Amino acid sequence: QVQLVESGGGLVQAGGSLRLSCAASGIIFSRTAMGWYRQAPGKQRELVADISRGGFTNYADSVKGRFTISRDNAKNTASLQMNSLKPEDTAVYYCNSIPAVPWGQGTQVTVSS
């Protein structure tokens, strides 16, 4: 059974940091590219960062230089380190494989100004 569990969200002031974690099960994690997505109220879900099986990374322009995606194949986890957070980063954050499997519940990130 495929399961994705995101954690690490919370309320933080602008300029602060958070580290999100994603625990994956039911997929061959080491053979799967992973992505972090976010969905703000009233907006479509967007991909903010992805990491290939081999560790190559890509970032949306809006988070480049502030967010870092990583993976630990031994633990079947993916992480998103978010620094210099801005109010516009407020959203529910999700992880998923690429191509996607059923979505988890996500984790809320709220950045206050």
What does it look like?
The protein is mainly β. The protein has strands at residues 3-7, 10-13, 18-25, 33-39, 46-51, 57-59, 67-72, 77-82, 91-98, 107-112. The strands form 2 sheets. Strands 2-10-9-4-5-6 form a 6-stranded mixed beta sheet, with no helix packed on it. The chain is globular, with a radius of gyration of 13 Å. The termini are far apart. The relative contact order is 0.33. The model has no long low-confidence stretch (mean pLDDT 97).
Would you spell out the secondary-structure blueprint of this structure?
Blueprint: E1 3-7, E2 10-13, E3 18-25, E4 33-39, E5 46-51, E6 57-59, E7 67-72, E8 77-82, E9 91-98, E10 107-112
TL;DR of this structure?
The chain has 113 residues and is mainly β. It is built from no helices and ten strands. The protein has strands spanning 3-7, 10-13, 18-25, 33-39, 46-51, 57-59, 67-72, 77-82, 91-98, 107-112.
How many alpha or pi helices?
A: 0
Content of β-strand: over 45%
The gross shape turns out to be globular
Question: What is the strand arrangement across the widest sheet?
Answer: 2-10-9-4-5-6
- Quaternary state reads single chain
Share of residues in helices: under 10%
**What is the straight-line distance between the termini?**
40 Å
Give the averaged pLDDT, no decimals: 97
> Structural class of the secondary structure composition?
mainly beta
Poorly predicted spans: none
Instruction: Write the element-wise H/E pattern from the N-terminal end onward.
Output: EEEEEEEEEE
Number of strands: 10
Largest sheet: 6 strands, mixed
Rg computed from alpha carbons, rounded to a whole number of angstroms: 13 Å
